[in-house]
């Protein structure tokens, strides 16, 4: 049997950013079981699994636009210190969260710290980088009627 939408696949995988940073791996927890096509994996990964057979290993690259998105220079901004909590200890390279004017939580990484402002990068971590994935199909089967009804394993 081959991997197709609606089947249940058990996978071993390692995914790294193009920079080499580890994004996710089953190395420490063992294989994971998912229902293909049910949104448990991001679409670009699911597309590349189609047709795999048990025991097969595929290595592929997911481009930035199909992963964490392209890097947007306009999302690197000057953030006045008065918009940050006064007791917040900032470190260059640190990741932080603030609540924006509409109550939305915004995540940023500090690039530079100045006396009156910080230079903050609001791009998602991994933006602009491709993903390098190695996936091994451990098992594949049809979904049970209950799994098919629920849309998940």
What does this structure look like?
With 153 residues, the protein is mainly beta. Helices cover 8% and strands 40% of the residues. It has two helices and nine strands, in the order βββαββββββα. Strands 1, 2, 3, 4 and 9 form a five-stranded antiparallel beta sheet that branches. β6 (95-99) and β7 form a beta hairpin. The chain is elongated, with a radius of gyration of 20 Å. The model has no long low-confidence stretch (mean pLDDT 93).
Provide a concise account of the structure shown.
The protein is mainly beta. Helix content is 8%, strand content 40%.
Compute the CA-based radius of gyration.
20 Å
As residue ranges, the low-confidence spans are: none
CATH topology of the largest domain: Chitinase A, domain 3
The total count of strands amounts to: 9
- Determine and state the CATH class of the largest domain: Alpha Beta
Tell me, rounded to a whole number, the average pLDDT.
93
CATH A-level architecture of the largest domain: Roll
- Counting structural domains, the number is 2
Order of helices and strands: EEEHEEEEEEH
Strand fraction: 35-45%
Oligomeric status of the shown chains?
single chain
**What structural class do you assign from the helix and strand content?**
mainly beta
Provide the helix percentage: under 10%
Largest sheet: 5 strands, antiparallel
Shape: elongated
How far apart lie the N and C ends? 18 Å
The count of helical stretches stands at 2
